[in-house]
Amino acid sequence: MTTDAGLIGPFPDGVDPESYDRVRRRVLWTMPTGLYLVGSVAGDERNLMTANLAVQVCVNPKLVGVAVEQAARTHALIEKGNCFSLAMIDRDYRALVRKFVKPAEDDRAERTLNGLSYFDAPVTGAPVLSSAVAYIECRLDRTIPLGSHTLFIGEVVNAALDDAEAKEDLQVLRIEDTRMSYGG
Predict the structure, then answer these.
(1) Fewest C-beta atoms under 10 Å: which of 14, 30, 75, 123?
(2) 128-164 tens-digit pLDDT
(3) How far apart are CA 121 and CA 25, in angstroms?
(4) How far apart are CA 36 and CA 11, in angstroms?
(5) Domains in the chain, CATH or no CATH each
């Protein structure tokens, strides 16, 4: 339920919705959250998008879920292409994810998205940032509409580390490492 002030309920009885909303957002912001680049492809169109709503949802089979806003270009590409990639970024490259908060410019001749090198994942063809320290690629298994977002569930069909031996203690980028926040 949405109030006249644009606040989204439900709200406990007897609380001021505006004050409660501020507290609820702060609590939700404390949840540890990774920052990833979701790659999508349909035909000749490719995109990378910064995302923080990603999680492994099942171990047998290996399923990963990513929540994507319904108005996003990535949403349409995942629906059409039936696949996505999820790239993990080293913590030292925190500024990189800001380059992908809007649709990416694809320079096919240079193989860059927003000026950064990428490659097509070998099984699905979804783009992966070349500097990613690890990635997975998924074939779309199912979609779950969730209001403003859709949860895309994909079966992991390939996974790779940049350098498996050197990355045993890899520290991947989290939203807490940036000044970014998700609305909560």
Answers:
(1) 14
(2) 999 999 999 999 999 999 989 999 999 999 999 876 5
(3) 36
(4) 31
(5) 1-30 (no CATH), 34-177 (2.30.110.10)
